[in-house]
Amino acid sequence: MNRFIISFISVFVLVIASGCGSADTPETDSELLTQQQTNPSPSSYARVSLDWFGTYHGVTPCADCEGIDTTLELTRDESFVLTIQYLGKDDEPQTTEGDFFWNEAGNTVTLAGVENRPAQFFVAENAVIQLDMDGQRVTGDLADLYILRKQSESEGN
């Protein structure tokens, strides 16, 4: 009889546990990345658990041009190459190279030597999110435009 009760309780706990969390499933990339940024667990820190090295690309908003074509390459030796081009304004891209460092939480990189533009990126699964000049996540209707997607090897330079 005791085995039956223990088995029943075990099954009941499994059923309850499997139903938990489904209401919190993010619907958009932005919601998923926000959850990763605001609720990191020690086992999910980007620095130790993601294949963060690689090339990321996107077109971020621009106040006085069509957009900023942005490519960021992060290497395993913690160096970077940042290439930006102001679309409809610049003929040639601007490239900055240097080292980057991780924040204490292991989820955000700061590009050393980058001035007069955002230099911090939150690292997520197959993406980096450009943070604002104060290191904060951009919110609102344009938030998804600050996500740079990781390129596959075949898309690389």
Structure notes:
The protein has 157 residues and is an alpha+beta fold. The chain has one domain (29-155): Lipocalin (Beta Barrel). It has helices spanning 2-19, 29-38, 46-49; strands at residues 54-60, 68-74, 79-86, 94-102, 108-111, 120-124, 127-130, 147-150. Strands 1-2-3-4-5-6-7-8 form an eight-stranded antiparallel barrel. A hairpin with a 2-residue loop joins strand 6 and strand 7 (127-130). The chain is globular. Keywords: Signal. Pfam families: NlpE. InterPro entries: Cu-R_lipoprotein_NlpE. Residues 1-23 form the signal peptide.
Summarize the structure.
With 157 residues, this protein is α+β, with helices and mostly antiparallel strands. The protein is 20% helix and 31% strand.
List keywords for this structure.
single chain; 157 residues; alpha+beta; Lipocalin; 8-stranded antiparallel barrel; 3 helices; 8 strands; NlpE N-terminal domain-containing protein; Cu-R_lipoprotein_NlpE
Topology readout:
Layout: H1 2-19, H2 29-38, H3 46-49, E1 54-60, E2 68-74, E3 79-86, E4 94-102, E5 108-111, E6 120-124, E7 127-130, E8 147-150
Antiparallel strand pairs: 1-2, 1-8, 2-3, 3-4, 4-5, 5-6, 6-7, 7-8
Signal peptide: 1-23
Organism: Cyclonatronum proteinivorum
InterPro entries: Cu-R_lipoprotein_NlpE (IPR007298)
